[in-house]
Design goal:
Layout lengths: L5 H8 L1 H4 L3 H19 L2 E5 L7 E5 L6 E7 L14 H8 L3 E5 L14 H18 L5 E11 L1 H10 L3 H4 L10 E5 L6 H4 L2 H7 L3 H6 L12 E7 L4 H18 L2 E5 L6 H4 L7 H11 L2
Parallel strand pairs: 3-4, 3-5, 5-6, 6-7, 7-8
Antiparallel strand pairs: 1-2, 2-4
Helix pairs in contact: 3-4, 5-6
Length: 289
């Protein structure tokens, strides 16, 4: 039997099984998110399209013409919600950003309206296009957009960095997204397709893997991706972090770091902790032009 059998893939990719207190992280995110919404008074559930879960929340900056951050949540493209991640907005807003937390449809969808990972990637492109077209109305500078994503969101952020925006809308600039931070992202879906606990929801096909594996694409002509992963994550998540650096090179991925002592969930919490490496990298991207 191969060492990389079905059980091995589940061990490598089932983060909730690897982190016994994962529910405590989720509970903290939800509590802090509720507090952020109460304190910051965002505009909730604005629609960026007519499809399933095509909504976003905007946390305006304190000053006009602010840099913009689009945050994409994780959950293996099949779980969680933007409302679980409002907590990131407080720290990002303190950096001077206008923060947009986006939702997307979750796999597998329904029999009448199935949802695939490529479908979600297209939703994120459409959400980003909406932000570019409308964020000035909310005090954001559409020429300065950073995407930050966790886990599946890190994967989607990398896809946006490499997006052909003219295929999304003729009015869109070629460099709509020039800066991205992936926290524990996945960049090759081939092993994910072999992971049993995910397949009933994701239903990945070889075509989906080809369409939605950024590490298999040519490196983006412009822009930078910062990629980080927790040091306590599985060998596969550590490999994905190295993989995108190898695939796109140091010019496009100038930051590829393993952060000691952090697991798949605690590493995202670092985004909200001033002085942490994740917080510092986010601030660097937001303030860069």
């Amino acid at each position: 039997m191969s060492a990389k059998d079905a059980a091995w893939h589940d061990r490598m990719y089932n983060n909730r099984a690897r982190v016994p207190d994962f529910a405590d992280h989720f509970a903290h995110w939800q509590q802090a998110s509720a507090q952020a919404r109460q304190t910051l008074k965002p505009q909730l559930d604005l629609r960026y399209g007519d499809g399933l879960h095509e909504t976003l929340d905007i946390f305006p900056a304190a000053r006009p013409h602010a840099p913009v951050v689009i945050f994409i949540h994780g959950g293996y493209w099949r779980s969680l919600d933007k409302s679980d991640h409002s907590f990131v907005a407080a720290a990002l807003r303190d950096m001077g950003a206008c923060v947009v937390v986006v939702n997307y449809a979750l796999c597998p969808g329904t029999a009448g309206q199935p949802v695939t990972v490529p479908d979600i990637a297209l939703q994120m492109a459409q959400a980003s296009a909406w932000v570019w077209r409308h964020i000035a109305e909310h005090g954001g500078d559409r020429s300065n957009i950073t995407v930050i994503g966790h886990s599946a969101g890190g994967h989607l952020g990398a896809m946006l960095l490499a997006c052909d925006w003219q295929q999304v809308g003729a009015d869109l600039p070629a460099e709509l997204v020039r800066k991205a931070l992936s926290v524990s992202g996945l960049f090759d879906l081939a092993p994910v397709r072999k992971t049993p606990f995910l397949q009933s929801n994701l239903r990945l096909t070889p075509a989906h893997v080809r369409m939605a594996s950024p590490a298999k694409w040519p490196r983006p002509r412009n822009g930078v991706l910062y990629s980080v992963v927790g040091g306590d994550e599985s060998a596969e998540f550590l490999r994905h972090n190295r993989l995108i650096h190898q695939a796109w090179g140091p010019k496009t991925v100038p930051v590829c770091e393993v952060l000691p002592g952090l697991n798949h969930f605690s590493v995202l919490g670092e985004l909200a902790r001033p002085g942490s490496r994740v917080h510092t990298l986010a601030a660097q991207l937001i303030t860069a032009r």
